Amino acid sequence: MNIKQNPGNHYTFYANDGRQILVRPLAADDTALLVDLFDHMSPESRYRRFHQSLDHVPESRIWQEAAQITHFDPAKSFAYIAFFSSPDKGLIPISVARYVDSGPGEGEVAISVRDDFQNLGIGKKLMRLLAYQAEIKGYRRLVASIQNDNIAIWRVFQHLPYHIFRSPDGSYANIIIVLTSTAVEDENDGILIPQPPLATT
Ligand SMILES: CC(C)(COP(=O)(O)OP(=O)(O)OC[C@H]1O[C@@H](n2cnc3c(N)ncnc32)[C@H](O)[C@@H]1OP(=O)(O)O)[C@@H](O)C(=O)NCCC(=O)NCCS
Predict the structure, then answer these.
(1) Ligand 1 centroid from CA 121, angstroms
(2) Range of the domain at 32
(3) E strand intervals along the chain
(4) Atom 1 of ligand 1 has which residue's CA nearest to it?
């Protein structure tokens, strides 16, 4: 794969509507940004991401869960956070993608894009960056459990330059992305641009 990674691991890319998206690794003091992202997700998106209804959970639990995600063990997990730089609101968090160790050489992957930024190509590009990061860290595969009717995430996975296996499991499907198989044609060359570190916090 042909993405160049700079030492700070920061990137920019363009959403399909031309807006510039900034990406950096998630940091321990990003908890409030995750809560903001969650607040901008519809009940359906939350359900698709967390596989449970989260409409009536107390605010304290949302903060607790967000803090757990940001305070990860870097040896066992990694996450990117993406921002749009709004002229009036500054940097707003619009997406997070992460993987967590789930076995030898294996990471379980998850992603969310806030609803008003969905279907603009952001999920595809962020997932590609994340998979690339996992590959260079030595992971051999990423896995996920997705709802069968979640067309968007399936399309996101299918656009990755890796071989994908899908096995049905009731109303869900188990996905395996084989990171050692970069033979699939890479159609995104040149779209993702490494950047020097940003001051986003
Ligand atoms: C799944 C998700 C991350 C996709 O991110 P996104 O930025 O909206 O996706 P993209 O714009 O990159 O689109 C990816 C593909 O899905 C398609 N797509 C996007 N939204 C769609 C929708 N609502 N219905 C059908 N297809 C859709 C796009 O057309 C594109 O396909 P194509 O390029 O092959 O034509 C986002 O929808 C989301 O956060 N959903 C809620 C959480 C979730 O489902 N997470 C996945 C489980 S871990």
Answers:
(1) 8
(2) 10-187
(3) 10-14, 20-25, 77-86, 90-103, 106-113, 141-147, 163-169, 172-178, 193-195
(4) 153
